[in-house]
């Protein structure tokens, strides 16, 4: 087997074949960087904005300017970005509770939302803990088509049938589902339908999608887009945080939910976190480009090894996630082990599957990251169940991402060679 796969040759072949895709990614990062820098200039970013505030944080100019910059970069009317938003799920929860009231319906337009939202919505979990369901918010969903695309007709019919829909929810990235990620154009199509046949807010779970395309959901009609700063827009710099961008009204309502009605976004000490968030946004288009190249590279190599991938190596991407269908538990474990060995932090650790609370099957995770759980950094995981898919993303630099991918390839090859020997 090792004779068949000359990794050095294969790497050179991959990079030659992917050169046009890499060129496109560089150009796209350049355009997004220009968008970020234009916003910095227009908002007169200066070092004074990086100063820490404490207590109530009234008049924290850095916080106010960063909000304005996010609004501009995402093409929205308003935004808020806070290190006190503790995760993507927290940010999404603020959005959902900010917009929905008792008697309203939350309609998901893209099938089941991300796992961690189940208990927020009340699809699963204990009654009485304060889910949307506990507060009398109903939930329904329109499944994706068999091809994993939005069911536009189904969405239209569901909206027309139920005038209580207040939030039409879209998940841009596949998350950990075996589906396609949506393009911003597809999101725009859904926004058009929602706005034509209801007065619901369109809310987008934007996790993993930021800066992958020239457009963002707020530019095509989304009323609210939400994401995490330890993914794309934090650029690998933000230590923690989340953002919500959208229309003035949607952002105002979410601000009331985030702090308190009447108080809204007037308070919030930045405690010295502003600089990392500014710097992270500055880096984000570039860092996302590094992650995209790493994903293309991984797809190319694993396809050559005979694995099924989604997206395919040469496909245009809509988020930074790469799926590799490992097909056997040992191969999935080997993949993650290799990613861990090829990480800058905790490279000496051998990761093992474990029973993670809330998951039916054991899960394996590789995360040798500077910031805990930061998945713009090289990371991989997958539930130990057929078809044993490794979900892989990140790489703060293409160079290190490539080292991580090659390490995963070597670990997987070892298992394949052992199997081949066992069989012969
Ligand atoms: C990561 C992610 C979330 C939530 O993220 P946490 O920060 O882990 O709470 C939500 N939706 C999608 C699609 C994600 O990828």
Provide an overview of this structure.
- The protein is an alpha/beta fold and 424 residues long.
- It folds into two domains: 4-31 and 284-423, Aspartate Aminotransferase, domain 1 (Alpha-Beta Complex), CATH 3.90.1150; 48-281, Type I PLP-dependent aspartate aminotransferase-like (Major domain) (Aspartate Aminotransferase, domain 2, 3-Layer(aba) Sandwich), CATH 3.40.640.
- It has ten helices and twelve strands.
- It has helices at 7-42, 61-73, 88-99, 118-121, 152-161, 184-197, 248-258, 274-304, 329-341, 398-423, and strands at 78-82, 105-108, 138-141, 165-171, 201-205, 224-228, 242-246, 308-310, 322-325, 363-367, 379-383, 389-393.
- A seven-stranded mixed β-sheet has the order 1-7-6-5-4-2-3, sandwiched between helices.
- Helix 1 crosses helix 2, helix 3 crosses helix 7 and helix 8 (274-304) packs parallel to helix 10.
- The longest helix is centred in the first third of the chain and has 36 residues, at 7-42.
- The protein is globular and about 70 Å long.
- It starts with 6 loop residues before the first helix and ends with a helix.
- 50% of the residues are buried.
- The mean pLDDT is 95.
- Residues 87-89, 114, 116, 171, 173, 175, 205, 207-208, 228 line the site of pyridoxal-5'-phosphate.
């Amino acid at each position: 087997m090792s004779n068949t796969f000359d990794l050095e040759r294969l790497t050179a072949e991959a990079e030659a074949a992917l050169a046009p895709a890499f060129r496109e990614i560089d150009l796209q990062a350049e355009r997004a960087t220009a968008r970020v820098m234009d916003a910095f200039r227009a908002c007169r970013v200066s070092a004074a904005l990086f100063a820490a505030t404490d207590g109530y944080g009234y008049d924290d100019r850095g916080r106010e300017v960063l909000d304005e910059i996010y609004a501009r970069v995402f093409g929205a009317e308003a935004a808020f970005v806070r290190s006190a938003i503790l995760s993507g799920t927290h940010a999404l929860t603020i959005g959902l509770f900010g917009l929905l009231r008792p008697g309203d319906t939350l309609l998901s337009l893209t099938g089941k939302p991300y796992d961690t939202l189940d208990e927020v919505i009340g699809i699963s979990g204990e009654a009485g803990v304060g889910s949307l369901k506990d507060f009398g918010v109903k939930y329904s969903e329109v499944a994706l088509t068999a091809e994993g695309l939005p069911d536009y007709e189904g969405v239209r019919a569901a909206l027309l049938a139920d005038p209580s829909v207040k939030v039409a929810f879209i998940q841009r990235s596949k998350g950990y589902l075996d589906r396609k990620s949506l393009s911003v154009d597809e999101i725009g199509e859904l926004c058009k339908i929602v706005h034509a046949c209801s007065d619901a807010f369109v809310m987008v779970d934007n996790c993993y999608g930021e800066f992958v395309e020239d457009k963002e959901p707020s530019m095509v009609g989304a009323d609210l887009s939400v994401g995490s700063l330890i993914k794309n827009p934090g650029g690998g710099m933000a230590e923690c945080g989340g953002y919500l961008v959208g229309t003035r009204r949607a952002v105002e309502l979410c601000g009331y939910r985030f702090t308190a009605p009447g108080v809204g976004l007037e308070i919030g000490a930045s405690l010295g976190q502003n600089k990392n968030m500014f710097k992270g946004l500055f880096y984000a288009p570039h860092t996302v480009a590094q992650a995209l190249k790493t994903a293309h590279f991984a797809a190319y190599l694993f396809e050559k090894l005979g694995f099924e991938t989604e997206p395919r190596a040469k496909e245009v991407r809509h988020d930074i996630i790469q799926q590799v269908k490992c097909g056997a538990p040992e191969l999935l474990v080997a993949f993650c082990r290799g990613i861990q060995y090829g990480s800058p932090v905790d490279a000496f650790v051998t990761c093992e599957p474990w029973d993670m609370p809330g998951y039916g099957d054991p899960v394996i995770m590789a995360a040798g990251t500077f910031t805990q759980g930061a998945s713009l950094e090289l990371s991989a995981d997958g539930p130990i169940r057929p078809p044993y898919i490794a979900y892989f993303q990140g790489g703060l630099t293409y160079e290190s991402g490539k080292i991580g991918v090659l390490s995963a390839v070597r670990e997987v090859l070892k298992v394949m060679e052992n199997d081949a020997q066992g069989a012969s």
